[in-house]
Amino acid sequence: MGKTALILCAHADDTEFFAGGTVAKLVAEGWSVHEVIATDNGKGSFELGTSELVTNSRDIEARAVADFLGKASVEFLGYPDGELGAVPVLELRQHFFRAIRRWRPDLLLTFDPFATFEPHPDHRAVAWAAVEAVSFSHFPLYHPEHREQGLAPWLVPERWFFAKSPALFDHFVDIGPWLVRKVDALCLHESQMRLAVDDMRQGIEACGVHTEFLPMLDRLNYRPALEFMIREMARRAGEKAGLEAVEGFRRETAADLLG
Q1: Helix axes 223-241, 190-207, angle to 10 degrees
Q2: Pairing outcome for strands 246-253 and 171-174
Q3: What backbone torsions phi and psi does residue 39 show, to the nearest 5 degrees?
Q4: Are strands 73-79 and 107-111 parallel, antiparallel or unpaired?
């Protein structure tokens, strides 16, 4: 029987940015990969209104990426983008308890609550709710009503946390064979990749540095800039592991408390 991975993230493109190569590798190895996306992606554009963006980014692009990578399922919680910090932590945590008990994963991937320099409130909210859920999902007195719904307590043996800063990474996945597939998957997030290019262009123009990259930042042809960025991120992460292309994580197991 194949193993199961569960990803808890904030936005439709988070998984692909931080772990797209890892997901492709897991699927190729026979894992079932499930994903829960907490927000509606409704603020991730400089050009689209919220309703159009939700339809494009979440319901069309995210499902297309899930099909492309072979994810077994994708669930949308639908909270307003950028506002997870206002959602009661017990409410968000309960959703994550439910997902863990439903899919009974061998591996959980999510944001790292202990990562430094994380400016996004949605990433921080997911990180804390997820780490609390995975820490107590096997305790039967947390949401005992779940058992009546067929969702028994479940202990997740392994947890991988991703973050923008690699300072805490101690586990490295060689994504060399899957790097192009990661870029392909990200390119299917069309609205989000246009946002990324627009954001990079604004930052460079405002600061007046790295202006040599401006010709590459074409929002209608974003793949060259995106591929350059992803390859550079994978190369830098790989330096610590002695590999050419890596996605890094901070790894924990359920046995770590034993020392």
Answers
A1: 80
A2: antiparallel
A3: -105, 175
A4: unpaired
Which run of H or E residues covers position 126?
helix 121-136
CB 139: neighbour CB atoms within 10 A?
12
Of 147, 196, 138, 162, nearest in space to 7 by CA: 162
What confidence score (pLDDT) does residue 258 get?
58
Output phi, psi for 155, to 5 deg: -100, 120
Give the residue numbers spanning the domain of 42: 4-258
- The string over 172-189, giving b where at least 16 C-beta atoms fall within 10 Å of a residue's C-beta and e elsewhere, is bbbbeebbbbbbbbbbbb
Number of domains in the chain: 1
Kindly state the average pLDDT of the residues 102-128.
Answer: 96
In angstroms, the CA 74 to CA 51 distance is: 20
Residue 82 region by backbone torsions, left for phi larger than 0, else alpha for psi between -120 and 50, else beta: left
**In terms of Cα–Cα distance, which of 256, 27, 80 is closest to 161?**
256
Query: Which residue has 């060689």 as its token pair?
Result: 174
Q: Are 63 and 74 in contact (CB under 8 A)?
A: yes
Distance (Å, whole) CA 96 – CA 75? 11
Confidence of residue 79 (pLDDT cuts 50, 70, 90): very high
**How far is 246 from 227, CA to CA, in rounded Å?**
14
| CATH number for the domain harbouring residue 95 | 3.40.50.10320
Query: In degrees to the nearest 10, what's the CA dihedral of 218, 55, 102, 173?
Result: 0
